[in-house]
Write a structure and sequence with these properties.
Chains A, B: It comes from Sorangium cellulosum (Polyangium cellulosum). Chains A, B: InterPro entries: S-Me-THD-like_C, S-Me-THD_C_sf, S-Me-THD_N, S-Me-THD_N_sf. Chains A, B: This is DUF917 domain-containing protein. 2 copies of one chain form a homodimer. The first copy, chain A, has 2 domains: 202 residues, CV3147-like domain (CV3147-like fold); 113 residues, CV3147-like (Beta Barrel). Helix content of chain A is 31%, strand content 26%. Chain A starts with a strand and ends in a 19-residue tail after the last helix. At the A-B interface, strand 7 and helix 7 of A face strand 7 and helix 7 of B.
């Protein structure tokens, strides 16, 4: 049974999407405004469970790619992602029966909802990351051998690239180059697949998790309860299971550059609970690894979320700045992301960080 | 009546193509080796006059794009340009009846001949530049409104981009980004057009001019005559009409960088005929402008060719080096490149050089 999204859900959805974005995935505030607009025009957004997708469905996932730092300066026109899907359909000579997030984190949780509303397509409640990751091949579709191309890439001028690559690493390399030329962020339709493949490879229920996380944080704030306790409790009943506050402190330094099509850098947080120690968070679009000296508190693919200390409102990497009072929350990644073959794609070494993955449950408290 | 190219023609062809390359267009030596190989396999290269192309012909021009400095380090596998044409055909749902040079200078005079031999397609004796230019929109097809996309871009891995751009400047910008990602040079099929459009917009006879120039230089050397006199005489009977030796000197300095997908820089030549003055040649893949102090001796779109002082063998921009003894020859561009609307695309200001175009006939001798 599908769920019809209502306008009152949008704040919860974007709050939860920002949380799963682990700092990246693009600012979901912009996605929420775009969704509000298409819904105000009377368009309907239907979310269908992954289990209800039939073998013969043609799923074409949609997303944005690029640096979050560019997205906040280059707001979408609104119809680029839908154009991307349409151009890929034309190239393939097929019609999509639904779209789906590739990345249920940040703005990319909302992009397929906007596309679905504009084109009258249901949106599958699933994605390929269960969070946000910076590279196109960092998803379960790649890990499970779904061909990543042909893909479509579009921009606000209507320029379109149809890319067919010999593998998903060349795909990332060339598509990133196109995105840089398109102004640092672009709109994509990729991993066209049948319903059976989607059921086999996608992470189920991640849009629902966004809604649940957003609701938990909002309700706790409304009821003057601790939103962090509520968050940890809510995640216990999801594929993420385990979450923990890792650090309470103040942002004392941010180094951030937009380079090679990514926002890269690090943030330093001083503990404000007594020890005065510092925590370094490494960033590539998303928060990747948190270290206090040599102690690793959290590492990809586990989720590393920097939240406002009072409201648990997520702070995206492009919005980090000196003086913010924050709590850092670590969340266990869904098991599919922690399998050995998955860790090769999602683990610290996949980002050039010379560390083994340490599950959040096992890291020093 | 078509001309069937013979292996004995290939040296003349590549010599003449190097001359029309005005320093760029890629090293035609590599193109000649590739052509020799396909002809040794028994394949036939048929060149047809532009006037014999019929209205209903489907012409798909082929070329390489990128920095000549990259091409000499990344030799083609051999079938990339043919793949590019085939991928564009598949995207358009049409079959080419012939191919054509976009650029009858440097390696790009030979690329369509290789494609024609491999795919059994005749090659039209015409091009869109009458020389070589660095940017994709610097051709008569663009000037006369032929849509520059859809275009195909391929590399040696088989990666393919089909680009549809909103205009030819976005096309250049995005395709250049793709080419950089593909290693600095890539293979393209672009400006798909019918025969009627080709007849209206292309520069006729430029492959024949390559052959004639190459033959003139070779025969003069064989007969111990002055190849420069022969060259000037040969060009008199072509659309180029006017040519002149502008400078005799020695290369005393070369500054060359591969940046933004182009080979850019300048070469300085000291006069060796008595005055000791220096001539500066500005380079973007091709030789663009020659200046002695404030005196402009030659400027785009006129052809500026640096040749070995004894043999008149052209020296490409990536091969320029200290100590070379050279003559610099200026050649009038065909009239179609000098029309006011054409100068906006081909003149010095189109390269960011703050100079008016001065026809070679009017520049100080």
């Amino acid at each position: 049974m599908g769920l019809v999204l209502e306008r009152k859900d949008l704040r919860d959805l974007s709050l939860g999407a920002a949380f799963l974005g682990t700092g990246g995935g693009g600012d979901p505030y912009i996605g929420r405004l775009m969704l509000e607009r298409v819904m105000a025009e009377g368009r309907r957004v239907e979310i269908v469970p992954l289990g209800e997708v039939s073998d013969g469905d043609r799923v074409i996932p949609t997303a944005m790619m690029g640096a979050p730092t560019c997205l906040v300066e280059k707001i979408p026109r609104g119809d680029e992602s839908a154009l991307s899907l349409r151009r890929l359909e034309a190239f393939l000579g097929v019609q999509a029966t639904c779209t789906m997030p590739v990345e249920a984190g940040g703005m990319n949780a909302t992009v397929p909802l906007i596309v679905g509303a504009q084109l009258g397509l249901p949106v599958v409640d699933a994605d390929g990351m269960g969070r946000a990751f910076p590279n196109l091949y960092q998803d379960t579709f790649h890990v499970h051998g779904v061909p990543g191309t042909p893909m479509a890439i579009t921009d606000e001028h209507g320029d379109t690239v149809i890319l067919t690559a010999c593998d998903d690493f060349r795909k990332e390399w060339i598509a990133r180059g196109v995105t840089i030329r398109m102004g640092g962020c672009a709109h994509i339709a990729e991993y066209p697949m049948d319903g059976r493949t989607a059921r086999r490879t996608a992470i189920a229920g991640t849009l629902s998790v966004c809604l649940a996380i957003g609701r938990a944080i909002r309700e706790a704030n409304e009821q003057h309860r601790d939103p962090f306790d509520r968050l940890v409790g809510t995640l216990r009943d999801t594929p993420y299971r385990h979450a923990r506050v890792l650090w309470t402190g103040k942002v004392i330094e941010v180094y951030r550059r937009t380079t090679e099509g990514f926002a890269r850098g690090w943030a330093r947080l001083r503990d404000t609970e007594g020890s005065g120690e510092t925590l370094d968070v490494l960033i590539q679009n998303e928060n990747l690894v948190a270290r206090a000296g040599t102690r690793v508190l959290c590492s990809v693919p586990d989720l590393l979320c920097i939240l406002d200390r009072e409201t648990a409102e997520p702070i995206t990497t492009e919005a980090l700045r000196y003086g913010q009072q924050v709590k850092v929350v670590g969340v266990a990644a869904p098991p599919i992301l922690r399998a050995p073959e998955a860790l090769e794609v999602f683990g610290p070494r996949a980002f050039g960080i010379d560390l083994d993955f340490v599950p959040i449950e096992e890291s020093a408290p």
